[in-house]
Amino acid sequence: MAASVLFCIITALNFICIAFAFDPRPLQDFCVADPTSPVRINGIPCKDPTTAKADDFFYRGLHVPGNTSNPLGAALTPVSVATVPGLNTLGLTLARLDFAPNGIIPPHYHPRATELLTVLEGSLEVGFVTSSPANVHYSKVLEKGDVFVVPVGLLHYQRNVGSANTVALAVVNSQNAGIVAVTNGVFGAKPPINRQYLAKAYLLDEKTISRLQATF
Question: What keywords were assigned to this record (predicted)?
Answer without folding.
Answer: Apoplast, Disulfide bond, Manganese, Metal-binding, Secreted, Signal
